[in-house]
Amino acid sequence: MSDEKFEVLGLGNAIVDVIARTEEDFLLHHGLNKGAMMLVDESASARLYEAMGAATIISGGSAANTIVGLSSFGIRSAFIGKVKNDDAGHSFAHDIRKSGVHFDTSFAADGPSTARCLVLVTPDGERTMNTFLGACQNLSLDDVDENLVRASSILYLEGYLWDPPAAKEAFVKAAEIAHAVGNRVALTLSDSFCVDRYRDEFLELMRNKTVDIVFANQHELKSLYQTSDFDTALAAFRDENVLGAVTRSEEGCLIVTRGETLAVPASPIERLVDTTGAGDLFAAGFLAGLVRGCDLRDAGRLGGLAAAEVIQHYGARPTVSLCDLATENGLALPI
Amino acid sequence: MSDEKFEVLGLGNAIVDVIARTEEDFLLHHGLNKGAMMLVDESASARLYEAMGAATIISGGSAANTIVGLSSFGIRSAFIGKVKNDDAGHSFAHDIRKSGVHFDTSFAADGPSTARCLVLVTPDGERTMNTFLGACQNLSLDDVDENLVRASSILYLEGYLWDPPAAKEAFVKAAEIAHAVGNRVALTLSDSFCVDRYRDEFLELMRNKTVDIVFANQHELKSLYQTSDFDTALAAFRDENVLGAVTRSEEGCLIVTRGETLAVPASPIERLVDTTGAGDLFAAGFLAGLVRGCDLRDAGRLGGLAAAEVIQHYGARPTVSLCDLATENGLALPI
């Protein structure tokens, strides 16, 4: 680490996506829960890969996608995540670095291979994910570069980090270091099933002030408060005293503070291709706005713009400059 | 090999494509010849990969793309090509099999890794390719399954096979076996620089009747006859007494027989994204028409349709059913 300053640092699972189009029947036949992320072991991953169709391989990982999106907005960004010293690991490192992101987490020399997520995209654009966490299970306290955390205005953490055993320690330590120097800490709840696995911990992270900013979609929010009624969940969320951003697909997002709830419409799209990365890129746009001092409404618009870009093609990383896209849409970021 | 019959068998280099968007400057800076395919060794490939941007990985290989296109048209197809027993080799095998293609060439247990082609796509949609042939260099006579060649109505060969030392023997042997049982043999000239390397051999293949059907684009044809005048090249080609298909990008194609030259217009497109695979998929459509007994004009139209599909997205393999696409365009293939 040099004395370089970063605007956002992400900590998350470093994953390579293996994407294939599929029919609804395939999901039924393989007992897959449409729209969800399921954890699978290496052999189950291999079996599902064998069954699924011809695939395209693109670097992914939820927080990593967000950080690449931030970099595309021109935000100085860094990422911490664990890959193995194998082909997929080198692809991941190459892609994130070439996206302008500072990444120097050491490669695991042995142990399980680099994580991969089998992404099955149905004709309606919905994605169903099956993740083998692999090398991510080796992310540990030692990987949290304290200077890097201190040097980054916002620390962004993914809820999925609760899955690999040692990562939550890294998560909590990073949040403590960030807060100790007055930086902000953001969390995405990641997935409604992830919320189901770690509900109490996630609520505690908000209530004990480990996190200041929380991203959730409507399903995750309902799961968090164990209610089928969105308004009930929203009211409970408003009482948590965090800055919240709740995404609602084509209905846009709600930005929740103790004082008010702000509705921001979604950006229009021409054609929905693959929803993978929608939430990740919303977070990128919102954080880009926040870290550059935009008002909350513009931050929400930037999130919507980035999400709209990523769902119109396969893969969860932007294929155009989000900085240019923002400018073209009258949302140029302050320097 | 069972007693299964195939309509088209492809023999070619088995390659995984690593695709990145790039600017014109990058090509200049790295001394790359825009639009061409250049052979590079493993270390040059690694250096270029290090320099290029975030990439998407999709199975490729010229003849392999054609065969996958044929399968997408519903044509019973098979492929022979050499990969290593590594991650990329397994991806290649998975993808081509899952595309409905019969593929059982043995994996190389040692030697160089599976071939990869670094594909740089400029904003105008043109692609510039840098290929490390790797395991393709181990394709040999032993890989040509004689029963498979006999069982396939058309044998499709790529000019690029002249690059790996042992592959041309496999090429010639396969053609002899095919002709011995009355099957047809097709050749694509692959690339104008490839023609430059093997001009005399390619002319000889036509003149000694090793090949019956020849695919070329206008650049390759001019290179073949060492002329800058397309009409001169075309006249010379007409005298070769082969069935020729000459592609001319947005001007469509010319189908050349001894008796006549037939012009078929290109299929309209909405947006040019990546020209990778245009020629490969034209060959797929044309051969699909030919093997199913369509007239030459319809075969040319089918070629244009498949080429138009593949240039509107990244990667050289179709992303929709070409069989359905043909039907929707009034070109349903006879059973």
Give a verbal description of the structure:
2 copies of one chain form a homodimer. Helices cover 38% and strands 21% of the residues of chain A. The first copy, chain A, has a single domain (6-13, 61-114, 135-328), classed as 3-Layer(aba) Sandwich (UDP-N-acetylmuramoyl-L-alanine:D-glutamate ligase). The first copy, chain A, has 12 helices and 14 strands. The longest helix of chain A has 16 residues, at 192-207. The mean pLDDT of chain A is 96. Chain A is of the alpha/beta class and 335 residues long. In chain A, the strands form 2 sheets. The first copy, chain A, has a 9-stranded mixed β-sheet, sandwiched between helices. The radius of gyration of chain A is 18 Å and the shape is globular. Chain A has helices at 24-29, 42-51, 62-72, 87-98, 146-150, 167-180, 192-207, 218-224, 230-238, 278-291, 296-310, 322-328, and strands at residues 6-11, 15-21, 37-39, 56-60, 77-80, 102-103, 115-121, 127-132, 152-158, 184-188, 213-217, 243-247, 253-256, 261-264. Strand 4 (56-60) of chain A pairs antiparallel with strand 4 of chain B.
Question: How would you summarize what this structure contains?
Answer:
2 copies of one chain form a homodimer. With 335 residues, the first copy, chain A, is an alpha/beta fold.
